[in-house]
Write a structure and sequence with these properties.
Elements (H helix, E strand, L loop, with lengths): L1 H20 L5 H30 L24 E6 L4 E4 L1 H7 L17 H11 L9 E9 L3 E13 L5 E10 L10 H12 L4 H16 L3 E8 L5 E7 L5 H13 L2 H8 L5 E4 L18 E9 L2 E9 L7 H36 L3 E5 L5 E4 L1 H7 L3 H4 L9 H7 L13 E8 L5 E12 L5 E10 L1 H15 L9 H18 L2 E9 L2 H8 L1 H17 L6 E6 L2 E9 L2 H16 L2 E3 L2 E3 L3 E8 L6 H17 L4 E4 L8
Parallel strand pairs: 21-22
Antiparallel strand pairs: 1-2, 1-5, 3-4, 4-5, 6-7, 6-10, 8-9, 9-10, 11-12, 11-15, 13-14, 14-15, 16-18, 16-21, 17-18, 19-20
Helix pairs in contact: 1-2, 5-9, 15-16
Length: 646
């Protein structure tokens, strides 16, 4: 490769010097030589580009079935750096190691693109690769230049894995980046553990990965028996993985041996011990305790305890020979133990993420996550199903029901620290997937960083449409007449008070009409109460056609109705509406095949002339109605007598 570079440089220099050095060459020969050198230089550049791309893009995960021999000394394993980026490259999550390596401000997570740490040309190529649909279902491995602290470019090996939702749609990318192995001396198992972490992300179980480690130690290095056990919160110890050489039979002695030692307190103590690794002979303790079944005829066992949070573990490697674990091998196995500890931490983290994802995904309520300004960043399946939008349609769109006003009181600025406020609950109405109106109880909970500042909001929308409809029905029944569905006396009195207050503010007239059917008793006696009820419903419908939507028609009881007329300026306007009502009701009402004539008496009281007190006004309208009856009915009568003369 170096020779190709040297040859390319010589050709480029020749092209630059061609004209000064070829004064004796004819013009046509000069041009032909120049073209030939140019073609050769371009070809070399193409070869170099292909070679560089081959080194830059390594799409195959390193084969984990080939394990190198243990070295004489074991360097410290590299700490994994994990990132989660959106499809557009925005950093959504980062572990502590990645935050430290990139010098990333935690407050800027969700706002900064990974492109800020990668050279422009390489980032363009990466974006092209991430956009290819055929690659969205599998992982990729690249060697990428990254600007790490202290702002120096380093070659990093990046394992990029797609994260999919339950429908198989791409939601984001997981990046695991570490120093390129070509530039660092690394533990011989590092490649294997990087592969296992990728397998964890792709859905492989943690116990499968642990078993693969045991098999690697047995098959590659000839250890006859290797096993891994864990215990959590002083519970019973569990055998997580084991592997044996072909000459040993686990089914014959293994289960009996494990059942015996798993009950022993010594085993749990060895698993949670903090003294460090130890080499033991065939009978390290008295009694039935042993690191391996006696029928295996092994000589030594190397036990390596480790701890990860509340989980304690033990790696045990058994040998056929005494003194089978010299210091170099023990140092190497200690490195394996540290890698297992890292793998367990990663595995438990992924299991928790999968559990949380499964829990949230199975919730029947609509759930979404927004940024501090209310723009949607994630939705669960129920959100898409209930509201009829895909996750792609919801992403980046401001949440319409976001309670800005309530949050402004809780957090005056986005950087305000108010940890004492747990959530904000509101009731909102949204359109469902079928266009129907749905009522939700919305609970918005802030997610805070270490400094107590809001980074995101979790919004849960609980469908309370059935409850809201039931409450509306109960409220409607409490304030409306069950026969005619007109406002009843309770709602009438409330609206009369409001209308009087409005009339005082506007300086307008308010008229209260009190109506009574003159011949309703005879109708009931002649046709029966069912016909009478149907006639009352027809009267209510006719009354509604005679007034404006801003007016109120009520049924107080029996055949008594009231009408509140608002915003009138002249008595003549009131008289015209009353006459319109008399004319409307004078036409016979067709019920059950019969035309039934109806006679009506109307009493009218006007505020402020007659009274501004609602009870007094109603009494005066009632009294005026009886005056109308005294004059033979089927007429109107004002409480103010002089208005009847017009």
């Amino acid at each position: 490769m170096a020779r190709f570079h040297q040859l390319q440089q010589l050709l480029q220099q020749s092209l630059r010097d061609l004209h000064p050095e070829s004064s004796g060459v004819e013009s046509s020969e000069d041009e032909e030589l120049s073209q030939a050198l140019t073609r050769l230089a371009n070809r070399l550049q193409h070869i170099l580009a292909e070679s560089t791309d081959q080194n830059f893009l390594n799409r195959e995960i390193l084969p984990s079935s080939i394990l190198p021999s243990p070295p004489n000394s074991v360097p410290s394993p590299e700490v994994p750096n994990h990132l989660m980026i959106s499809r557009d490259g925005v950093i959504q999550m980062a572990n502590e190691a990645a935050v430290e390596a990139l010098g990333l401000d935690v407050a800027h997570i969700g706002k900064m693109s990974l492109a800020e740490w990668i050279p422009y040309e390489e980032w363009l190529w990466i974006r092209q690769q991430l956009s290819k649909t055929q690659l969205s279902q599998k992982g990729m491995t690249w060697v990428v230049s990254m600007k790490l602290l202290p702002k120096a470019l380093m070659k990093m090996k990046c394992v990029v894995t797609p994260l999919l939702d339950q429908s198989g749609n791409l939601t984001s990318w997981h990046w695991d980046f570490r120093p390129h192995l070509a530039t660092l001396s690394s533990h011989p198992f590092t490649q294997l553990f990087q592969t296992l972490e990728t397998n964890l992300l792709n859905g492989q179980g943690l116990d499968e990965c642990l078993k693969y480690i045991c098999e690697g130690l047995v098959q590659t290095f000839g250890y006859p028996f290797v096993w891994i056990a864990t215990v959590q919160d002083n519970q019973r110890i569990q055998l997580r993985a084991q592997s044996l050489g072909s000459e040993l039979d686990w089914d014959e002695q293994g289960p009996i041996w494990w059942a015996s030692i798993a009950r022993q307190e010594m085993m749990a103590q060895a698993c949670v011990a903090s003294e460090g690794p130890s080499v033991s002979s065939e009978t390290p303790h008295t009694g039935e305790f042993s690191w391996f079944p006696s029928s295996f005829n092994l000589r030594e066992a190397y036990s390596l305890p480790w701890r990860q949070g509340d989980l304690s573990g033990l790696l045990v490697v058994c040998s056929k020979e005494s003194k089978g674990f010299p210091s170099s091998i023990r140092e190497w196995l200690e490195g394996v133990g540290q890698l297992i500890e890292n793998l367990m931490a990663r595995g438990r983290e992924i299991e928790q993420l999968r559990l949380h994802s499964a829990v949230v995904g199975s919730v029947h309520d609509a759930v979404c996550v927004t940024d501090p300004h209310g723009r949607v960043e994630w939705v669960n399946q129920a959100y898409s199903k209930i509201l009829g939008v895909t996750s792609q349609q919801a992403m980046g769109v401001p949440l319409r029901s976001f309670p800005h006003a309530q949050l402004q009181e809780a957090w005056p600025t986005i950087d305000s620290v108010r940890p004492e406020i747990d959530y904000v609950k509101t009731e909102v109405m949204e359109k469902g997937s079928q266009g129907e109106s749905l009522v939700f109880e919305q609970v918005l909970t802030p997610l805070l960083d270490d400094q107590g500042k809001v980074t995101h909001f979790v919004v849960i929308l609980h469908d309370v449409t059935a409850r809201a409809v039931a409450e509306m029905q109960m409220k409607h029944q409490a304030y409306h007449d069950c026969l005619t569905d007109l406002p009843n006396r309770i709602l009438f009195e409330d609206r009369l008070q409001l209308a009087l207050a409005q009339a005082r503010r506007d300086g307008t007239l308010l008229a209260l009409l009190f109506l009574d059917l003159d011949n309703f008793k005879s109708i009931n006696d002649q046709y029966g109460h069912p016909i009478g009820d149907r006639l009352l419903r027809m009267v209510a419908k006719r009354l509604l056609t005679c007034v404006r939507t801003t007016d109120t028609v009520s049924r107080l009881s029996g055949d008594e109705f009231t009408i509140i007329l608002q915003g009138l300026d002249r008595i003549q306007d009131i008289r015209q509406v009353a006459k319109k009502i008399l004319d409307c009701l004078s036409a016979p009402i067709h019920v059950n095949g019969q035309d039934i004539p109806v006679q009506t008496s109307i009493g009218i009281a006007v505020s402020p002339k007659d009274s501004t007190d609602p009870r007094r006004l109603l009494a005066m309208a009632d009294q005026a109605m009886y005056h109308a009856k005294d004059f033979g009915g089927q007429r109107l009568c004002f409480a103010t007598l002089e208005w009847n003369m017009e």
